[in-house]
């Protein structure tokens, strides 16, 4: 019942605030974040990370910041103990990929002590990190050695982006959402206290489920942005109704186990509906100003990112249920 009530709460918030959207241009990530924090003051207690992602899309004047809102919500969903007021960059992918065997960054326990805590040292690098330059915290996957089976033991370390030994290098901007920076990151003897290492297996708890969690929350952010456009440019009532239905569906999924095959099947169905919906609203962007239309056409490619990986997860879900067509 709580999940259902929570879903209705986000719908209530959207409808109550649709006439009070700040339409002035956003001047960078900090400006967007300030607007989201202002909106957060009115959040009901039942709001969760998906709700926050949606509202972050509503206050965004372009898909870039709607994406960042969803990305931020996804990281908070998998690591709920991190500071709520900080932007956290998820640092996993290396030269050989993001599978545990591809992670060569290492965490080594030392004889050092800081306060009452054992100190570890982090060395290695990450090839492609979203919003590292705009983040205050880096959530870093690293090997803490190998187990009896010879496999990497992956841990997640919480690192201050300004810590000594952290070096960021901007990488080429994507052809869409260019306002969100991407970087490679090098870690050289970075000091890591025991309390900065998150509990549990880094791969199963924080990495394996992330792409699904990210899909749910990023699409929530994008739907929030489309709701903004519908509100500002006077789109038909039926469009708003479909938007609210899609948002409600994503919110329900955000509360479930992201590793569940049933979640992958259901999410696939929601995304099919979303893609059809995006096609249906194409003519309505003619009601928007030229700059808004230009940015939407530029950034809508985000909706097709990682389709092959998503399809592979869906096929595995069907196989695990013994249902092949």
TrEMBL record:
Q: Recorded GO terms, molecular function?
A: acyl-CoA dehydrogenase activity
What residues does the Acyl-CoA oxidase/dehydrogenase middle domain cover?
Answer: 90-190
Supply the alphabetized keyword list: FAD, Flavoprotein, Oxidoreductase
Q: Does RNA-binding count among this protein's keywords?
A: no
What is the official name of this protein in its record?
A: Acyl-CoA dehydrogenase family protein
């Amino acid at each position: 019942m709580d999940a259902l009530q929570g879903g209705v709460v986000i719908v209530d918030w959207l409808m109550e605030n649709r006439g009070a959207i700040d339409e002035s241009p956003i001047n960078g990530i900090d400006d967007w974040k300030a607007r989201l924090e202002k909106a957060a003051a009115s959040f009901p207690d039942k709001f969760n990370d998906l709700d926050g992602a949606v509202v972050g899309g509503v206050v965004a004047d372009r898909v870039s910041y709607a994406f960042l809102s969803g990305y931020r919500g996804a990281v908070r969903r998998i690591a709920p103990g991190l500071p709520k007021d900080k932007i956290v960059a998820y640092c996993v992918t290396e030269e050989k990929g993001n599978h545990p065997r591809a992670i060569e960054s290492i965490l080594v326990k030392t004889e050092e002590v800081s306060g009452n805590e054992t100190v570890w040292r982090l060395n290695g690098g990450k090839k492609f990190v979203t919003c590292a330059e705009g983040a205050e915290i880096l959530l870093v996957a690293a090997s803490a050695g190998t187990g009896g089976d010879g496999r990497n033991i992956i841990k997640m370390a919480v690192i201050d982006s300004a810590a000594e030994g952290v070096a960021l290098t901007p990488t080429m901007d994507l052809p869409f959402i260019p306002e969100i920076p991407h970087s490679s990151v090098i870690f050289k003897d970075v000091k890591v206290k025991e309390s900065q290492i998150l509990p549990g297996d880094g791969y199963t708890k924080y990495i394996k489920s992330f792409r699904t969690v990210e899909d749910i929350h990023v699409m929530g952010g994008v739907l929030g942005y489309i709701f903004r456009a519908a509100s500002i440019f006077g789109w038909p009532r039926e469009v708003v109704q479909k938007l609210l239905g899609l948002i409600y569906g994503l919110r329900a999924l955000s509360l479930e186990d992201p590793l569940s095959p049933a979640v992958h099947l259901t999410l696939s169905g929601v995304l099919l509906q979303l893609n059809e919906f995006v096609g249906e609203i194409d003519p309505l962007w003619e009601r928007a100003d030229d700059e808004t239309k230009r940015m939407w056409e530029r950034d809508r490619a985000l909706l097709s990112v990682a389709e092959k990986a998503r399809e592979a997860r869906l096929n595995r879900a069907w196989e695990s249920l013994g249902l092949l067509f």
